[in-house]
Amino acid sequence: MTDKDSGFEPDHNVSHFAVGKEPIITIEDLNKWFGDFHALKNINLQVAERERVVICGPSGSGKSTLIRCINHLDVFQKGRIVVDGNELTNVARNVDAIRAEVGMVFQQFNLFPHLTVLQNCMLAPMRVRGKSKAEASQTAMKFLERVRIPEQASKYPAELSGGQQQRVAIARALCMSPKIMLFDEPTSALDPEMVREVLDTMVALADEGMTMLCVTHEMGFARSVADRVIFMTAGEIVVDTPPLEFFDSPDNPRLREFLGQIL
Ligand code: ADP
Ligand code: MG
Predict the structure, then answer these.
(1) What's this model's pTM, rounded to 2 decimal places?
(2) What is each CA distance from 110 to 92, 104, 165, in whole angstroms?
(3) Distance separating alpha carbons of residues 177 and 198, to the nearest angstrom
(4) Ligand 1 atom, smallest distance to 59 CA
(5) Cα(157) to centroid of ligand 2, in Å?
(6) Looking at this predicted complex, what is its ipTM?
(7) Nearest protein Cα to ligand 1, atom 26
């Protein structure tokens, strides 16, 4: 998809990196191996509050692994991750503290099939946050309205389109009042006509000031929404730059080749 197709207007006037402010995510010298395979190599990354960072790169370059390390869905062997002042360790209490602040949306929606849309959104606030049924239901409806599918509340996931399911997944994450949202290729499993409705939801979230880390190859979204675009290959961050430079004057040959393939 080109910029023109996406219809998003680039907005380069606003820098959301709050200078002098403590980053909400700090990743230092992160290394991860799967057995002998070195999946993440010396990753250094800081994300400021309200910043929107897009991560792209070829399949197998470590994008999902990086995102998953941030909320401890994958463990790492070396380096540090600090989220909003909490250092990620293997201590369960610490993992819970970080997960409480980080919402995650996956390629495959991952909704509970045996629960209705509303129940999907109410479950974690009740179980994890101890919210009452009434309160959880009220919050769930608020976010289902926000993603523009309140009328689907009593349906089961299988009765919804892929785009609607993904918007439920976003609403479900938002019900936990996360400070940070992680997206891992949220539109890759969708039919083309549903991509836009999910991207619109993500753009609205960005406009509200949500701190976002998005793995996506939707370059129209990256160009118009991202403060920075990161390019990974073979477990390394090789480019980390504002979108204008990323797209208009990429000086890394591997990035040029990648952009040539997807644009
Ligand atoms: P991306 O999201 O960029 O496509 P991933 O982070 O999923 O890449 O994977 C990075 C590399 O790590 C790939 O080579 C993949 O095969 C490998 N990998 C991912 N998960 C596992 C796993 N659970 N066990 C072994 N290797 C894995
Ligand atoms: Mg992936």
Answers:
(1) 0.91
(2) 23, 10, 9
(3) 19
(4) 4
(5) 23
(6) 0.98
(7) 34
